[in-house]
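B., you asked whether I could sanity-check this one before it goes into the benchmark set. Here's the sequence:
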Amino acid sequence: MFQKSQFIAILFLLFCSGIFAQSVLDSTNYKTIGNETEDEIIKHYGKDTARIIFEKYMLQEHNCIRAKNNVPPLVLNEKLCQAARKYVQVCRKRNSVEHNLRGTPTYRAQKEGYKSSFIGENNAWNYRTLAETVSAWVNSPTHFANIKNKNFSDFGVAYYDGYWVVMFGKSP
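And here's what the prediction gave me:
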C-alpha cells in the first residue's frame, strides 16, 4: 500500500507529465510533431508523455478541420479515450481496424460510462506519421463526415503499435 507521500509524488509526476507534454506542444511546431513517426515521439518523450502529445495533437488537428468547416470544436473526453485505448489493443491483437471486433462503438463507449448513444468512430492502421493518419481520414468521405459532424461534441483517441482509434460522441 502506498504511503501518503508516495501517492502525492505519483500524482505530481502524472501532473508534470501533462504539463511537460503541453509545454512540448506549446514550444514545438505542431507540423514538426505531426511529421515525426509515432515511434520517434514515444522514444523521444516516453510512453506516457507521448500519449498526451498524441491526444492533444489529434484534438487540435480535428478542431482545425472542424473550424474550416464552421463546426464547433470537440472536447477531449476521458471516457471516450478509455474506450478507444481498450479497443485499439483489440484492433492490434486481431490485426484489423473493423469497427465491430468487440461490440459496437456505442456499446464500448457506454461500457466506460459515456452516457450518449450517438457515437462515431474512425480507425486507422499503418500510417507513418500522425499527419498522414489525419490526412487519410480527411480523404475518406465516411471518416471525414465523422470529423465534421456538427452533432459530435466529445472526442477520445488512442494509439497502440501502429493502430489508431478515434471516438466521437454527443454530450447528453
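One thing to flag: Residues 38 and 129 are 6 Å apart (CA to CA). Otherwise nothing jumped out at me.
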